[in-house]
Amino acid sequence: GDYMHFNVECLEEFPKVSSTCPGSHVPVLQFGSVFKSTEILPNAIPMPVPTESGIYCFKSWVRNNHQDVCKALKYKESELEWENLIPQVVWRGTDFGYLNHINSLYRPSIQNVIDGKVDTSEGVDKRAEGVRVMREAYDGIWPRWKGVVLTSEAELEAEEKGTLPWVDIKFSKPSVAIKKKDIQYDQFKEYGIPAIGEGIYGEELKKYKYHIDLGGGGGTTWSGTMQKLAMPGLLFHHETPTKDYIHDFMKPWVHYVPVAPDLR
Q1: 161: which of 60, 87, 197, 230 is 20 to 30 A away, CA to CA?
Q2: Residue pair 215/221 in contact by the 8 Å Cβ criterion
């Protein structure tokens, strides 16, 4: 799963152990995300996820004595130089939850954020009002939606200055767990919040100077972090309460620039 789930009875009886609530000395292999805090399941061992760029690439890396990576993490040789990369922070991904059940953050909707809070008076800029209201809701919404708010603000500013927005964080698609009509993306766009963007993948994505790996359901992006590390640009790594196995091999300010959970 995205991250480790708890048996409520085990939490209530902690640190008492039983056949259903093993002690901390028993290793638990988690093929997904685990909590960084050693006070929460210190015996949990993060493992590569069962995907092509996960466990299969890890196996290939081990077999090649840590000297080579698998095809899924390789990109065509490019003549792109740092100064020629597009100077923009870019992200595309799914409108998915963020550490559900362990925080109070939420996915914004027209009803819970926009309705009744936007000034609809004649002559008022509807888009600017929508962005203002979303900024007021910023602290309570999921990180990926925080990125959408930052993008909306950047696009308004760029339009005024005639420049490229410094950030382009948008969803390439909604979560498979929800219906697109329930999120009302078109209405958000009318209020200056273009949450859905054109797809940017592989060879096109590597042309950007800055990347960010925004955490999802388990607090991480699984394969997204490795894929972006393999690109020419700089990775802004989203620090959250959880980690994947690859994070133990990564060093801040060497392999990436750390970004706070709320993106500030």
Answers
A1: 197
A2: yes
Alpha-carbon distance of 169 to 214, in angstroms, equals 9
Q: Which of 46, 45, 67, 69 is nearest to 58 (CA)?
A: 69
Each residue's pLDDT tens digit, 138-167: 999 999 999 999 999 999 999 999 999 999
Strands 34-35 and 242-243: antiparallel
Which positions of the chain have pLDDT values less than 70? 1-17, 19-20, 22-24, 76-78, 173-183
Report d(CA 48, CA 69) in Å as an integer.
14
Contacts of 29 (CB under 8 A, 6+ apart): 45, 47
Tokens 């009509």 found at: 181
- Tell me if the pTM is above 0.85: yes
At position 88, the amino acid (one-letter code) is Q
What is the structure's pLDDT at 4? Answer: 65
User: Could you tell me the end-to-end alpha-carbon distance of the chain, in angstroms, rounded to an integer?
Assistant: 28
What is the pLDDT at residue 85?
95
Q: What does the DSSP 8-state code read for residue 71?
A: G
What's the token pair of residue 260? 């706070």
pLDDT of residue 158: 97
Structure-block tokens of residue 90: 């870019």
Helix (H) or strand (E) segment spanning residue 212 = strand 208-213
